[in-house]
Design a protein that fits this description.
Blueprint lengths: L2 H7 L2 E9 L3 E8 L4 E9 L5 H17 L8 E6 L4 E7 L6 H8 L4 H20 L2 E2 L8 E3 L5 E3 L6 E2 L23 H4 L6 H18 L9 H9 L12 H10 L10 H6 L8 H15 L25 H4 L11 E2 L19 E2 L1
Antiparallel strand pairs: 1-2, 2-3, 3-5, 4-5, 6-9, 7-8, 10-11
Helix pairs in contact: 4-6, 6-8
Length: 354
């Protein structure tokens, strides 16, 4: 059964391609019953290796069933066709991802960056509060809805945290994510707290939003780690307020014990409600004081897609091969679509575990 037919049998008209990955693709679709556009992630199990099928896919399915937050992409339905393809029906973020947005606009005003970063921080706090770590936070996985609100997506690297008998989080030992967003302790192969490494990635996202370039050059990973550990953050000629710089510097702290927690990020001065006009005046004054010391930069965004530069140039299954396997439980949906089914809030009740 081809993909268009499988979707049609469930009440969806397949649209255009939105993205493509190792084991699948994302397409747009239209629901006849609910008169709404959705995104469809299609995973071809025949193309996936066993490690992905036994570890990453069950994790992702389980986490999608758990998360429910206004700043996380909603999952409406999951089903499997007779030709071993899994269809994940999700909320469609019509304004693309954050990296695309920044490439078209350049750096964002701080008041807008603050609003969007607060939404991202709240989504991450929600995940961490229920012991879910993302492990692949990057601009490409931060989507934008019709009102340009943040929608966190792609839980393919995510997992639920485990704790020892004393209640301490078990440290991770694997390399997950994209190099440009990865904390130094992860790149060095040091056992790390995945919640703390998520926070580093948040700092990179904020830096890119306000500066329109990357905080570190990832073309030489060894040199990049050395720069990270020196706690050097190069804002170049971008005019960023002192409060925003202070927040970024304390998020991108190489010492995990000194790196800000999400609670402290949300309580930071820059994160509080600000008057747009006064913030603009303050930023303009600070820029006037320093602009004569800075080199003039050409117009246009300097951002390049860093999402494909993984910490290891291998599949997700290979990248995280050292991690302990989860329970053998596997999600299984409908084997064959027969008629249109209503979209329900959350995961479709028909899903079962073997």
């Amino acid at each position: 059964m081809d993909e268009a037919t499988a979707l049609k049998n469930c009440g969806y008209i397949m649209g255009v391609s939105l993205a493509e990955g190792c084991y699948g693709k994302v397409k747009s679709a239209y629901s006849n019953q609910y008169k709404a556009h959705v995104a469809v992630k299609i995973i071809d199990k025949k193309k996936a290796d066993n490690n992905y099928l036994e570890k990453f896919l069950p994790r992702e399915m389980e986490i999608l069933a758990l998360v429910n937050h206004k700043n996380i992409v909603k999952t409406y339905e999951i089903f499997e066709s007779s030709d071993e393809k899994i269809y994940i029906i999700m909320e469609l973020a019509v304004n693309g991802n954050l990296l695309q947005y920044l490439k078209s606009r350049g750096s964002l005003p701080e008041d807008r960056s603050q609003k969007m970063f607060r939404q991202l921080a709240m989504a991450m706090k929600y995940c961490h509060d229920i012991n879910i770590v993302h492990r692949d936070l990057k601009c490409e996985n931060v989507l934008l809805d019709i009102n340009y609100n943040i929608k966190l997506s792609d839980f393919g690297f995510s997992k639920q945290c485990a704790y020892d008998e004393d209640g301490s989080i078990l440290l991770s030992k694997t390399f997950c994510g994209s190099v440009a967003y990865t904390a130094p302790e992860v790149l060095e192969g040091i056992p790390y707290d995945p919640k703390v490494s998520d926070i580093w990635s948040m700092g990179v996202v904020l830096f890119v939003m306000v500066c329109d370039h990357w905080p570190y050059d990832d073309s030489n990973i060894q040199q990049m780690v050395s720069t990270q550990k020196m706690h050097t953050v190069d804002f170049r000629s971008k005019c960023v307020t002192s409060e925003c710089k202070d927040l970024i510097i304390h998020i991108l702290h190489p010492n995990v014990l000194k790196r800000l927690t999400i609670e402290k990020i949300l309580a930071h001065t820059w994160m509080q409600s600000t008057n747009s006009e006064s913030t603009h005046r303050k930023k303009a004054a600070e820029c006037f004081q320093t602009v004569h010391q800075q080199e003039e930069q050409p117009n246009g965004s300097k951002l390049q897609n860093k999402g494909n530069n993984k910490t290891e140039a291998k599949s997700k299954a290979t990248q995280c091969k050292n991690e302990s396997k989860p329970d053998k439980e596997k999600w299984q949906g409908r084997k064959k679509a027969q008629s249109p089914n209503p979209i329900t809030k959350g995961i479709k009740k028909g899903l079962k575990r073997d």
